[in-house]
Amino acid sequence: MRDLRQLVSHMTIQEKLAQLSQLSGEAWNGGKLMGIRYGVTLDPALVRMAGSLLGASGAKTVRDIQTEHLKTHRHGIPLLFMTDVIHGYRTIFPSPLGMACSFDPAMVRESARIAALEASVSGLQVTFSPMADLVRDARWGRVVESTGEDPWLNALYARAFVEGYQNAPLDAGGVLACCVKHFAGYGAAEAGRDYNTTEIGDYQLRDSYLPAYRAALDAGARMVMTAFNALNGVPCTGNRWLFTDLLRGEWGFDGVAITDCTAVYELVNHGFCADNADAAAATLNAGVDIEMVSDTFFTHGERLLAEGRITMEAVDSAVLRVLRLKDEMGLFDNPYGHADEASEAALHLCPAHRETARALARRSMVLLKNDGGTLPIRDGETFAVLGPYADSRHMLDIWHCEGREEECVSLAEALAGRDGVTVLPCCPVNADGTSPAVPDAALDALLVKAAACDKLVLALGEHPSMSAEAGSRACLDLPEPQMRLLRKACVLGKPVAVVVFSGRPLALTEAHGLAQALLQAWFPGTEGGNALADLLLGRASPSGRLTMSFPHSVGQLPLYYNHLPTGRPKHGRNDPERFRSRYIDAPNEPLYPFGYGLTYASFAYGGVTLSASVMAAGETITASASVTNTGTVAAIEVVQLYLRDMAGSYARPVRMLKGFDAVTLAAGETREVRFTVDADMLKYHTPTGYQAEAGGFIAFIGPDAATENGAVFTLLG
Ligand code: NOJ
To answer: Most buried among 312, 544, 568, 684, by the most CB within 10 A?
Structure first.
């Protein structure tokens, strides 16, 4: 074992503070800051001694930087290389929100393993993933990076990501250490506006927001990133309760905590710190170790120590945690990690990785509507593909790491070998989210050509830049030129299928009313076009299920299925009573609920049967329902188990997903799908601890969160 404490004891204050500083690759090269203090010149000593770099990757680049760095570092402490490998490194999988709709954690784990393999040969050691933020408001652009609105499912996916990235000891090849983010509650940004403040009560925080971060840590994530937001008045980056009391104290986390990008400087803007020195002290004293892309520790640390505003003990502990991570990654013995150009050439975008990307993209797409069997397009049918995504390689969201648009397969390319396809690109969206007006005459001319086909496929949506960080939107409609195209297309009298590319649930109410079919494609990644063609042409049936509710209108947001009950619930869609918790101008229900998604088959559910109607402490019961494929093709049905706790010390959500089983059923096949219900599923953070409370419950089994197919049982005290 390397004696890291001894190493720390030989380091100067500046050397220690530099270990706690992360520079961008750009800053390392140019000596200047990026982010909100873009262009500010850095102390050359900090550049020389910095502990880690953000965003520098590629085997040759990393080897060169590390070689240069080690030439001058007095103790030979290697740099750590970190970046945002969010859903693939060079081979890009669907955006996390899309991946989550696969309801297939094993596939998600495999995507993370592949991402780690490609990234590790390019010299990276740490990924800023998974993003375990719970999201309830589709206005927030970063919903694209999340796995959705369900705490239990998010926890399952957080674990799957960590297991995929950290699939072997950290010094082995093909592994990335994980940094779970953004701690905590970033997804609750008020009004869906990025970087905005959050108010989350203790019950909601513990029961809904924290479980997914915790799951990532329980799975072994080595790092935690602070969130930009203030949580109940205290910015997360300087939040001692969050990082010291909860994370390190109550949860026993002993890994590395890092700020988000420039978040230390932002403590001043938050009105929480008077100046950058104050912000450095608040961050270190909160229990955070590394500042990302800022220089406050290095610039002010020595003075803060002299003034007793931070302690050497706290600095040493932080440095030790950083050095331990470097040691665990094997960098002291092999500072280049697994960076290797020959392996990059062999592994990046190799056929096996592309095949997994295609399979996962297929599983991520959600069929929202399919009247009259509009989809799939059958052999011999002709069809026109129109819209901005008809022949576009905008298949990647903005977190595409080293993925390149030119390496993506567009829909037109994927359909190229098929007879009877007419591709008519139109209505482009600019990267700033604006959509140039398209003259009616131009649309009409395209539609004349389209009208000669049996069916129309409209490939519509947002530009990738309209979601992700700083991609909040107040209006979630499809761009107006695209809607005009759709309105015109729908009067031709031909079946119209709309494919929606987006990073978030859009308000598709009008499109739903107009088109015969709707298929949500998300940003599907490198193999997006091929995956889409597989589904459109019926080579596979869609099987994705929504992990975020789709609103009728923006005014319903935040919207999520697992809300707490109200004292005046609305009884069904058509309840005429005014004095209910309702809108007078919109339904309460979503356009498409959580868990929803169609296939090319259809399924019928039998009633829920329980093995017992009473469950004593320590016992389990089985809840089951028969599921029959009443269609004519085989398909995957994601059978879902929801529980409702009828009365508790705190009011409990009206539904809580607690299990699912993705079963493949042949046409006409019936299967009895069983779930074991145990007391762990009934536990929550009560006023007196994490426990199940005796009383009545309902177990629902159905195709989505709106199911009424349930049976009642009682948990004994
Ligand atoms: C800011 C983002 O909020 C965070 O998610 C990301 O990891 C960092 N930038 C680094 O790129």
So the answer is: 544
Residue 573 is predicted with a pLDDT of: 85
Confidence band of 549 (pLDDT split at 50, 70, 90): very high
Number of domains in the chain: 3
- Going by alpha carbons, the residue nearest to atom 4 of ligand 1 is 260
Q: Give residue 411's domain range.
A: 362-556
* Selection from 595, 664, 671 nearest residue 635 by Cα: 664
Distances (CA, A) of 84 to 99, 257, 372, 539, 701: 17, 16, 43, 34, 38
| CB-count burial class (<10 Å; 0-12, 13-18, 19+) for 382 | middle
Are 339 and 481 found together in one domain? no
Is residue 356 domain-resident?
Answer: no
CA 127 – ligand 1 centroid, Å: 10
Give per-residue pLDDT as tens, 385-405. 999 999 999 999 999 999 999
- Give the model's pLDDT for residue 196: 98
Question: Which residue's alpha carbon is at the smallest distance from atom 11 of ligand 1?
Answer: 84
| 207 pLDDT higher than 80 | yes
Q: Which of 83, 181, 195, 397 to mutate to test the pocket of ligand 1 (most atoms within 8 A of CB)?
A: 181
Predicted confidence at residue 9, as pLDDT, reads 98
Ligand 1 site residues, Cβ closer than 6 angstroms: 54, 84, 128, 181, 260-261, 469
What are the residue numbers of the active site? Answer: 260
Give domain status of residue 350, yes or no: no
Same domain flag for 149 and 234: yes
293 CA closest ligand 1 atom index: 10
Q: Ligand 1 centre and the CA of 83: distance in Å?
A: 9
- Among protein residues, the one whose CA lies closest to atom 7 of ligand 1: 128
Using 50, 70 and 90 to split pLDDT, how confident is the model at 17? very high
Mutational test site, ligand 1, from 146, 261, 293, 397, max ligand atoms within 8 Å of CB: 261
- C-beta neighbour count of 612 within 10 angstroms: 13
Neighbours of 202 (CB within 10 A): 10
Helix (H) or strand (E) holding 514: helix 509-514
The whole-chain average pLDDT of the chain stands at 97
The number of residues in the chain equals: 717
Residues 82 and 135 in one domain: yes
3-state class of 459 per DSSP?
A: strand
pLDDT at 32: 72
686 pLDDT exceeds 90? yes
> Taking 90 as the threshold, does the pLDDT of residue 27 lie above it?
no
First-to-last C-alpha distance (Å) of the chain: 50
Compute, in angstroms, the gap from residue 261 CA to the centroid of ligand 1. Answer: 6
Its pTM stands at 0.98
Determine how β-strand 684-686 pairs with β-strand 496-501: unpaired
Q: Both 54 and 144 in a single domain?
A: yes
Q: Do 648 and 525 fall within a single domain?
A: no
Region 30-44 average pLDDT? 76
From 556, 574, 595, the end of a domain falls on: 556
Q: Which ligand 1 atom is the nearest neighbour of the CA of 179?
A: 7
pLDDT at 35 over 80: no
Pocket test for ligand 1, best of 85, 127, 292, 293 (most atoms within 8 A of CB): 292
